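Q: I'm writing up a methods section and want to include an example of the input and output format. Could you take the sequence below and give the corresponding predicted structure tokens, formatted cleanly so I can copy it straight into the document?
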Amino acid sequence: EPCAHHGRTPPCAEALVAAGIARVVSAAADPDARVNGRGHAILQAGGLSVTPSVLSEAAAQPLSGYLARVMKKRPEVTLKMALSKDGKIGRAGGGQVFISGPVSNAQTHLVRARHDAILVGVGTLIEDDPSLTCRAPGLTDRSPLRIVLDARLETPLDATLVRTARDVPTALAIVAGIGSDDLAPFRAAGCDFIACEAEPGTERIALEEMLEDLAARGISSILVEGGAKTGAAFLAQGLVDRIILVEGEIVVGEDGVSAPLGCSVTPQGFRKTRELRLGGDVWREYEKG
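A: Here is the clean output for your methods example:
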């Protein structure tokens, strides 16, 4: 639906009327309170023929992040995890374990490019020291905002994300109240901060309120890449809309960190929408509902 409000430009609906367009075919109404049917009404009042809701379900897929931000007041959340054959996501204290193969990794970079933000917990940051960038050819400028869930500001100053914060936007989600002296070196490195509420009686970040704050910043989609505790927390609070599970060929062993989900059973409350074999890996996608 064409917009009906004044922003940096006049309403698109009025421009279509002025251009002498005879007919408009649209896929979806815009739930934004400033539009929400007004765009179609302007067209019809201007004498245009309007055919709404054409392929509306298909159109909702690329619009899903925006629709979540407008209707749920939070970004759409995709949880992505790579699991070994024995259901592990890594090895505690063993540094980064490469579970998925090169084809799956290339697909992961495409997924990153389609999201506004990518989020990990501080435990994953300390264990793996990831870069969390998009390195797909031609898409290296599409790296999303990198967010670290770090209630007590435990992120090392020499972490890759901190050292590259002036090259790729980086934000630390912290519990409000940490002193300015502690924040100063991170700010000097180029990091931004998201001051969050804590869950009552804990030092854990209140995830739902944090997501609302991110939506207010214009973030429509977030890719949660780890680790196990962070993924489990989003799942437990019903904040995950999509899941991507990549089952690799390796076996980590008994000292591995168990994933909050398994590949053998569809996660409760979700339905499988896609399954691909990428090299030696199996890539599965799920949607809520």
